[in-house]
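Go through this chain for my students:
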Amino acid sequence: MGYHILPHIDLYWSSDPGFRVNEIAEVMPVKRFKKIIETLHLNDNSQQPSREDVNFDKLYKILPLISLLSQSFQNNASNSSSQSLDETMILFIGRSSLKQYMPLKPIKRRYKVWCCCDSSTGYLLLYNYEMYTGKTGKGTEEGLGANVVKKLSSKLAQEDFKTHVTFDNFFCDFSLMQYLYEKNIYATGTVRRNKAILANIIKNNTNRNGRNKSLKLKKGEFKWRTKQDVAFTVWQDTKEVLLLTTAFHPKVEVTSVQRTQKNGTREAVHCPRVVKEYTKRMGGVDRFDQVKGTYAVGRSKRWWLEK
C-alpha cells in the first residue's frame, strides 16, 4: 500500500510486529477491507452509455476518480512558464482493452498516458494528462501527436504569462509549431526527417532511392532556415539533430554543450542555443516518472513465508 509495500495484503493485519501496520489494522478488520475492495465502484454502471452511443467513454467507470485527482492537482499546482510533454507508461499485467503494445519497450504491454509536466519539478498539472484509450475509427490514425499537443496545451493559452512547451519528434511538425505560436505558446521540439514540411536543405538532399540523407556536417556545425514564425535547425552531434522552434532564433546566440570523448575526457562542442534549451527543458515527464516510481503500486503476490 503506497510506499509501505509488503508481500501480501494480509500482512498489514499480521500479529507479527515486524509486518503489522497499526495505522491500517486499527481502522477496520482485514475481512471488511477485502469486502470493500471487492465491491468498490466509482461510478453508476446503470448510467453508462452503450458502445454505440457517441458519448461512450472507455474510462467511464473511473471518471469520478480522474475528476477528483484533477481537482487535487489544481489546488496544489504552481504553474511555471516551461513545461515538457511526453508519454508515460503504467504497468498492468491483467486483461484490459486499454493496454497498448509497445514492442520496443522493456515491458511490452501497459497503459499509455499523455502528460504535460513542469520542466524543473516534474509536477503533473491538472488539465495536462490524458489516458490513451486506443485509436478512433479504422485505419491509420493521422495526426495523433499534433492532436495530443493541441488538446493538452489548450488551456495554457489562457494563462497570464506566455508558456514554453517542449516535446519530441513523435509530436513535432511545422504546422503544429505555427499553430501554437498563434495561440501565444512558444514551443521547441525535435523533428523527424520525413515530415512533410521541412527546409529545402533537407528535402533536396536525397539519395538515389529518394530518401533524405545526412548533410555530412562536421561535429558542432549547424545550418538553419526560417519560415513564418518557425525556425528549423540541423546540428551535427554524433548524429544529426533536427529541431523546430518558435522561441529561439538560431543566429542570436551560439553556445556549447559538454560531450564525453572515448578517452573519458570532456570536450565542449559548439551548438545553437535551441539545442541546449531543448535538453534543459525536455526532462519534466522523466522527473515525474522518477517520482511516480517511488510510489509504485503492484498487484499482490503470494509468497511462501518461513514460520
About this structure: The mean pLDDT is 80. The first helix runs from residue 22 to 25.
